[in-house]
Amino acid sequence: MAEGDSTPSGQFEWWRKSLAYRTGMGMSDEEKAAFEEEYRVRQSKNRTCATCEQDRSWMLQYSPLVRFMIDQLKRVGDGEVPEIKCLDCNDLKGGGFHPQEGILLCANWLKDKWQLEDVLTHELVHAYDYKVFAVDLNNLKHHACTEIRASMLSGECRVLNEIRKTGLANFSTKFQSCVRRRAVLSVTANPKCKDAAEAEAVVGHVWNSCFNDTRPFERVYR
Q1: Which residues, if any, are the signal sequence (predicted)?
Q2: Of 9, 70, 113, 126, which one has the fewest beta carbons inside 10 Å?
Q3: What is the pTM of this model?
Q4: Is residue 90 a part of any domain in this protein?
Q5: Which domain holds residue 142?
Q6: Calpha distance 127→137 (Å, rounded)
């Protein structure tokens, strides 16, 4: 049975295993051990997704950054705000945005609600750019620009975060270095991009115009 199978047959199989485990009938020691591990994984997944959903709701109600971006999205285009979902992800990432599917928050990779705030704001900037600038991710310049703006505006590259990670060296350039690094990594992962060298070149080409474009914010707090 696939992990987390929600089909009727999957749910029946999970009920059958649970009954056998509780009664001790019809289950070998190996099957009991496998059931205990599956139960542990299910409980862990439920907790991470539940925590993500709780933190998402808190941010939608109390985070100035998130509330501001939600308000801006309501003012542009069709006024629609993308659905924001919490799921477990296989990739090593905090979240993602898709024009049709909405915003994904990767519950199993988010350490706390403050990281969730950064990731959610980052993805809301992508949603804003898609509406306002008609971003085409097949165009590497478009991709680079929205990644620069999302890392710059979300707060994920704030200087205090970078100091915790890398110390006080090169203090004056930490913010820009973080934004550039994140943009290059994201563009490198684009199937249209040949390699990191091309990603760096594209990010460099659009850097000045995109890094200085703080819309919809008046200024950036670093």
Answers
A1: none
A2: 9
A3: 0.76
A4: no
A5: 135-222
A6: 12
